[in-house]
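Example record used in the benchmark description.
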Amino acid sequence: MTSYLLFMGTLAGVYALLSLGLVTIWGQGGMVNLGLVGFYAVGAYSSALLNAAGLTIAVAWAAAFIIAGTVGAALCLVTRTLRGDYLAIVSLGFAEVIRLIATNEKWLTGGSDGVSGIHAPLKAELGAAFPWFYLGLTWTLVALAVVCLSRILSSPFGRALRAQRDDEQVAAVAGKPVLQLKLKTFFVGAGLSGLAGAVYAHLTSFISPDGFVPLMTIYIFLAATAGGYTRLIGAVVGSVILLVLLESTRFAAVAIPGLSAVQVASVREFSIAVILIAIMQVRPQGLFASKPQRAPRLASKPGEAPAANGGTTVPIPHH
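Model output (structure tokens):
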């Protein structure tokens, strides 16, 4: 039971990295990205293959982040004129293309047989303590991602990003580099998804195209939505909630007598949908709603005092 809980806790950390990538691209950048699982697969295969080629796991993880981020920026550049549903459809098609490449390019990915024997860091040295170590390592990466994203999103870059999310034309007229903002955002968000794939690959020691189906993207969207798709803490908490729902419904569905395996899976998916709909009815903005953004306080000049709202100044009369 302990091993199971440790594995689920680590998997929750992987989902949290994916959700953080989604919050960056969708919640903060306003770009609907349904190709999340594609970047996840790119990161997983990149890390596994580079490690097999002789690179250390740390270097392979960094390379997975960069490769997935670069692929994300390239996709953003190609789809720069698309908005809303059109971008969502194209990004979903991208994820399916990645899965088909992994299935058919056997010389590189092993095809449907997948890649096995992927090394995990310090697994042989730690022995029975390895699951605890990997759990801590995964959540350390999540914490680092949250800290870095918090600093980025609270910077002028983050404010400009939200400005183009709210109204791209107004942001462009105000002199904001809209395309550059989108490219950088896609790079970071896709890179986090690729890092999640790398962590998952070295956790399970095996990856195959069957593990990168579009349903994974839907799960992560549900996690981000339930937690609050514009908040980093919402992405993390939503991922934990999602995993609890997935596993609790698994046991509940199996406990129902007289159901076949297909019926059990159907009941499980139906239960998850009902529970998440109920959450959205009670908290449509997610568990963590967006915080109101305040304009930065302007420095007052001699003879002026700051206004009460901190945004403008009012003259001080002289007698």
